[in-house]
Each structure stands twice: as structure tokens, then as C-alpha cells.
Specification:
66 residues; alpha+beta; binds zinc ion; Erythroid Transcription Factor GATA-1, Chain A; single chain
Amino acid sequence: MTSSSPAATVVACPICRTPVEWGAHSPYRPFCSERCKLIDLGQWAEERYRVAASGDEPPSEGPDTH
Ligand SMILES: [Zn+2]
């Protein structure tokens, strides 16, 4: 008999390119580890921060509450 076991899907970690098996035992997929996940989140936050920093003025659209 030929046991046709389904090949595990492997993705490359977007941060360090480490092959990550796409399964329940890879809670941080597509990242290889929590560290890489946090790095990715950090990059997003950084981009957001840059965008926010470009507009230095806060949207002050409200009644004058002095
Ligand atoms: Zn990684």
C-alpha cells in the first residue's frame, strides 16, 4: 500500500525566512516564533508612527472648552 500522507504546508517566515510548518503546533505562523511576530508588529507600528508624525497637528474639531 502506498500511504499518501498529505504534505505539510510550509511557509517562510516573513522576517527571517525560516521554514515554518503551517500547523496547530505553530501558533505564530506565518512567523517562526513570537519574536518574529513582534518584530513584524513593530514594523507596522513604526510605519503608523511615521504616518502619524507627518501630521503634527491633532484634529481639534470641537467646542472651545476653556
Ligand atoms: Zn522568523
